[in-house]
Every structure is written in C-alpha cells, then in structure tokens.
Amino acid sequence: MSAVDSDAAVGTQYFKVNDLVRSGFSGAGDVYFAYAFPANLTPVSIMSPIYRVGRTFTSVQHRALRYDTLANKSQNGTNYLDLPTKNSVSAEITGEPTGIFASTTASTTLAKQDAVVNSNHIDFTLDTVYANEDGSSGAYSAITYVEASCNALPTEQFGAIRLRQTGQENATLKAIDITGYTIGTP
User: Fold this and answer.
1) Per-residue pLDDT tens for 62-114?
2) Nearest to residue 127, comparing CAs of 145, 140, 112?
3) Domain annotation covers residue 106
4) Is residue 24 part of a domain?
5) Residues 92-113, buried b or exposed e (16+ Cβ, 10 A)?
6) Cβ-Cβ contacts under 8 Å for 142 (sequence gap 6 or more)
7) Which domain holds residue 138?
8) Which of 48, 78, 86, 118 is close enough to 107 for a disulfide, judged by CB 3.0 to 4.6 Å?
9) CA 185 to CA 157: how far, in whole Å?
10) pTM of the model
11) In 87-134, where do the E strands start and end?
C-alpha cells in the first residue's frame, strides 16, 4: 500500500484492503488455502495477518466496539461476529455503509453478519492499509495461497481478483475488481 489519497473527499483517505476475494473455483472440487509472511519482513510491525478465510463471495464487515482505547479495540462491536453466519446474504459486501468515529460504539444487525457458502470464491479477511485510523500499520499483506485441481489451462477473467474495503473505522464500502487467472467460472 502506498500513501495515495483514495478519493476526492476533503482530507486524505487511504484505501484499506479488508478482504481479498479470489474467484474461479466452481469446478475445482476441494480447494486448499493458506497464507505466509515473507521472511524478509517483520510481520508484527508492518504486516496484516489473515483473520479469517472462507468459501464465499460476500465480504462481511467486522468492527471493534470502539477505536479509542486498546481495550475497546480488542472487543467486537455490538452484533459483530468473528465468524459470520451462513444463511442468505450473497451480496458483494455486507455491513454498515458509513464510517464511524473512534469514540462511536460500533453496532450492526445480525442480518448484516451473514455470508452464504459459494464454491466459486475464496474470501481472505485482512487489514492492509498504509496508515490505519486506529493507529496500527499494516502496509503489507500476508502472501495468500490457493491450491486447487486444474484439468485445463487457466483463463484470464475480469473480476477473478477483488480487493474490498468493508468500512472498518471511518471508511466507506468500496471494491476494486481486477483481471486474474481462473480455473473455473468467476
């Protein structure tokens, strides 16, 4: 991530990657995923770990209770779940559409903490941003790996890679779709 303003609003807002979605695994059967930190970087100080991984298209917003103290940052906001339910939501991103201030208590509904299983996609949840509103720095993400069987040559598809900002802290919902290789249908 670099120090570039991500929109035209007053002040500097950095695009924060909260979810990385890989698509194109619909016919792959079993899919295995992992992540690792490059040996030449110090993970604790400058890298975002992967917090959760799932076979879904939907990126589910996660917020701390408040972003004003370390104790509040370590608690989930009201109705925010570490592991989303899997009932009915198949939207690209689910969560509250507006950002919150550090002293605002985060609150949502359980209906917005839901993502159906979708075998075509893998969603990695992380927190990568040049300068984070909560004071942390995770300008580098972990390296993500996906292993799947492939019976044909991979094809390039627009939207095979999706970078999503899910509105943590004082950020809005945004998505960037990128061309990538797929082995199934994106």
Assistant:
1) 999 998 998 998 899 999 998 888 888 888 998 898 888 889 999 999 999 99
2) 140
3) yes
4) yes
5) ebbbbeebbebebebebeeebb
6) 35, 36, 37, 43, 47, 48, 49, 50, 126
7) 17-159+170-182
8) 78
9) 9
10) 0.86
11) 93-94, 121-128
